[in-house]
Design a protein that fits this description.
The protein is α/β, with parallel strands linked by helices and about 375 residues long. It has 14 helices and 12 strands. Helix content is about 40%, strand content about 20%. The strands form 2 sheets. A 10-stranded mixed β-sheet has the order 1-2-3-4-7-8-9-10-11-12, sandwiched between helices.
Length: about 375
C-alpha cells in the first residue's frame, strides 16, 4: 500500500516520545515499557497483536506509524551458509545493504552472529577504493532505519538458532540471535553522529535488543571532532579507525578526508581517545597493491603506532568494479605484519571466505570480518 509505506517508523521515537504518544491515547504511562519490549525484545512485526494496548491506542499507532521502514528487495546467502546479505529499499526509494555473518565457536569463543549495518545511503567522503564512496552521498539514515537492520537480521539468525536448538548443537544458555554489531556498512557513522549514538543506546538497552556495548564496533574514516566527542560519551564500544596509509601523501591519494584531517591530527585525537577511554583502537589498513603495501610503509606505520594501545587489521582490498586497485600478494601481508611486530604493534592479516554473494557484499563482509574478529 503506497500510503502506508510513506509513514514514518515508530522505531525513530525515543522512549519519552513513545510515552507521550501512548499517554495521548489515554493509556497509562506504564504501558510504554510494554510497548518498548514488544517492539525491540519480542520484535513484533505488527501493532495488531499488542492487546495489552487499548484498541484506540493500537489504531492510533497504525494510522501514524509503521514498525519496520525496510523493504527487503534482495536477500542472498553465501554457499557456505556463513553469510547473508540483504538489500533494502527505504520508503523514499534509497537502497542500503546489511550483512549477517555467522562464526562457528572456536576454542575460547562462543558462537557469534555479527551484523554489519549501514548508517547513510551513500557516502560523501569519496575514498577511491570504496564502492559506496564512488556513489556519493544520498542521505542520513534515521535511528529506526539503523536499528531495523539489526532487527531484520535477528529474525534471520533466530531461524537457524531454532534449528540448532532442535538438533542439540546449541544449548539454551548460548541462545542469543545477534551477538555483535559492526557499523561498517555503507556510509560514515560519525558523520551521522546523533543517530549512530541513539541507535547504539537502543541496541544496548536491556529492555530491548540487549547487545553488549563491548560487542559493538564503530568504524570511522577518521573525522577528528566526533572522535574527540565520542571519547567523552562513556560508551564502552570499540572504535575502528580507517588509516590505510602511514603518511599524508599516500593517504591523501586514496582518502580525500586526509586533506582536512591529516595523519598527525588524527593520531593525536586517537591518543586522546585512548587516554580518556582506556580502550584500544583498531586501525584498519586495506592493502592496495603497489599503493600502500611496501615494506618501507610498514616500517613507517610501525614508527607511527609504536607505543599506542591499538591493534592493526591488515585487510586485502576487495576490488570494486572498474576500480584501479588490485590485491597485494599474500606474502606481502605477512611481510607487513613481520615489520609491525618489530615495532611491537600487534596486527592480524585477514583472509576472506564466502564472498560469493557478490562484490558489494564481499566488500561489506571483508571490512566487518577484519575488525570484528578481534572483538569478543
Ligand atoms: N565510513 C567508515 C565505515 C564504513 S567503511 C569507514 O570508512 O571506516 C568500513 C571499512 O571498509 C573501512 O575501513 C573502509 O576503508 C573499508 N573498505 C572500503 N572499501 C573497501 C574495499 N574495496 N575493500 C576492503 N575494505 C574496504
Ligand atoms: Fe565513506 Fe567509509 Fe567508503 Fe570512505 S570507506 S567512502 S568513508 S564508506
Amino acid at each position: 500500500m503506497p500510503q502506508k509505506r510513506s509513514l514514518p517508523t515508530v522505531l525513530d521515537l525515543s522512549k519519552s516520545e513513545l510515552e507521550a504518544l501512548v499517554v495521548g491515547t489515554g493509556e497509562a504511562p506504564s504501558r510504554t515499557g510494554q510497548l518498548w519490549r514488544a517492539l525491540y525484545h519480542e520484535r513484533r512485526a505488527s501493532f495488531d497483536g499488542m492487546t495489552f494496548l487499548s484498541l484506540r491506542c493500537r489504531e492510533a499507532l497504525k494510522r501514524r506509524y509503521v514498525i519496520s521502514p525496510l523493504d527487503p528487495v534482495q536477500c542472498l546467502a553465501s554457499k557456505d551458509g556463513s553469510t547473508d546479505k540483504a538489500v533494502f529499499r527505504l520508503p523514499d526509494g534509497e537502497l542500503i545493504e546489511t550483512v549477517l555473518m555467522r562464526y562457528e565457536p572456536d576454542g575460547h569463543r562462543k558462537v557469534r552472529r555479527t551484523v554489519c549495518v549501514s548508517t547513510q545511503a551513500g557516502c560523501a567522503l569519496g575514498c577511491t577504493f570504496c564502492a559506496t564512496g564512488q556513489q556519493g552521498f544520498r542521505r542520513q539514515l534515521s535511528v529506526g532505519e539503523i536499528v531495523s537492520q539489526v532487527m531484520f537480521m535477528e529474525r534471520l539468525a533466530g531461524t537457524d538458532e531454532e534449528a540448532q536448538m532442535a538438533d542439540g548443537t546449541q544449548t539454551r544458555s548460548e541462545r542469543q540471535s545477534v551477538t555483535n554489531v559492526v557499523f561498517m556498512g555503507m556510509g560514515e557513522p560519525l558523520a551521522n553522529y546523533d543517530n549512530t549514538l541513539s541507535s547504539i543506546r537502543t541496541l544496548t538497552d536491556d529492555q530491548g535488543l540487549h547487545i553488549g556495548a563491548r560487542h559493538i564496533t564503530v568504524s570511522t574514516v577518521g573525522l577528528v571532532p566526533p572522535i574527540l566527542k565520542l571519547a567523552d560519551e562513556d560508551q564502552p564500544i570499540n572504535l575502528a579507525v580507517s588509516l590505510h596509509a602511514p603518511d599524508n601523501v599516500t593517504r591523501s591519494e586514496t582518502m580525500p578526508v586526509n586533506r582536512q584531517y591529516p595523519i598527525e591530527r588524527l593520531i593525536e585525537a586517537c591518543k586522546t581517545y585512548i587516554a580518556k577511554t582506556r580502550r584500544r583502537i583498531f586501525f584498519e589498513y586495506v592493502l592496495l597493491h603497489g599503493q600502500n603495501d611496501h615494506v618501507h610503509q610498514a616500517e613507517a606505520l610501525g614508527r607511527l603506532l609504536t607505543g599506542t594501545l591499538c591493534h592493526v587489521n591488515l585487510i586485502p582490498v576487495n576490488p570494486t568494479v572498474d576500480g584501479p586497485y588490485r590485491r597485494s600478494a599474500r606474502e606481502c601481508g605477512s611481510a607487513f605484519q613481520a615489520k609491525l611486530r618489530e615495532y611491537r604493534v600487534p596486527s592480524t592479516v585477514r583472509t576472506e571466505k564466502g564472498i560469493d554473494i557478490n562484490a558489494g557484499c564481499g566488500q561489506l563482509r571483508a571490512r566487518a570480518v577484519a575488525v570484528d574478529a578481534e572483538v569478543l
